[in-house]
Design a protein that fits this description.
Blueprint lengths: L2 E4 L3 H14 L2 H4 L2 E4 L6 H4 L4 E7 L5 H5 L4 H28 E11 L8 H10 L3 E3 L3 H6 L14 E4 L10 E8 L4
Helix pairs in contact: 5-6
Length: 182
């Protein structure tokens, strides 16, 4: 097997490479490739190439809002938030193109925003007949002691709520499966 990581942002890409070098044992390091491509183009560059795809989408990062008192950052994030769902949809559509039939796709963000989470997934499900939602509700039951989940979500999505004193959340996850060629 092979593991391909893509991070468009230079700073985050360097951080990703350092993390891989720190945690992946030497015998496996040559199985990992890191690229800096525009994720919106990967589907065109490598159609139906991958068995599994994770889209850890850029998002409005609500956790930073919870613990930051910087009003300038808040204004900047509000302006960016309007454009993020389109970028997220484009990244997700590219990921579907890059996924082989039978392959699975996980979409994740670190925001509470419905527009950046469920709405993006609904848009891809409504516009792309080659993917179907995958039930991940069992995963939530398995970790319900560790995380607090938003109730009322669809079976193919989970939203971990942030908790004071805990180092995680919010975290949205949805899983899709590609059932046919794009």
């Amino acid at each position: 097997g092979h593991f391909h990581c893509n991070e468009y942002d230079n700073l985050r890409s360097r951080w990703l490479e350092q993390t891989i070098e720190s945690f992946i044992p030497d015998p496996f390091i040559n199985l990992i490739t890191v690229s800096k491509l525009d994720g919106r183009q990967i589907g065109d560059l490598q159609p139906e190439f991958y068995d599994k795809v994770l889209v850890d989408a850029p998002c409005s990062n609500d956790r930073s809002w919870l613990f930051s008192a910087d009003p300038q950052q808040a204004v900047l994030r509000l302006m960016q938030r309007k454009e993020l769902s389109l970028l997220q949809f484009q990244l997700l559509r590219s990921a579907v193109q890059a996924l082989r039939p039978g392959g699975s796709l996980v979409y994740s963000t670190c925001t509470l925003s419905r527009a950046e989470n469920s709405d993006v997934i609904s848009l891809i499900l409504n516009s792309c007949r080659s993917v179907m939602p995958v039930d991940i509700s069992g995963m939530a039951r398995g970790v319900s002691q560790e995380f607090t989940f938003l109730s009322g979500m669809q079976q193919h999505e989970l939203l971990v709520l942030p908790e004071k004193g805990r180092a995680w959340g919010p975290m949205y996850v949805a899983k899709l499966k590609k059932v046919s060629s794009s």
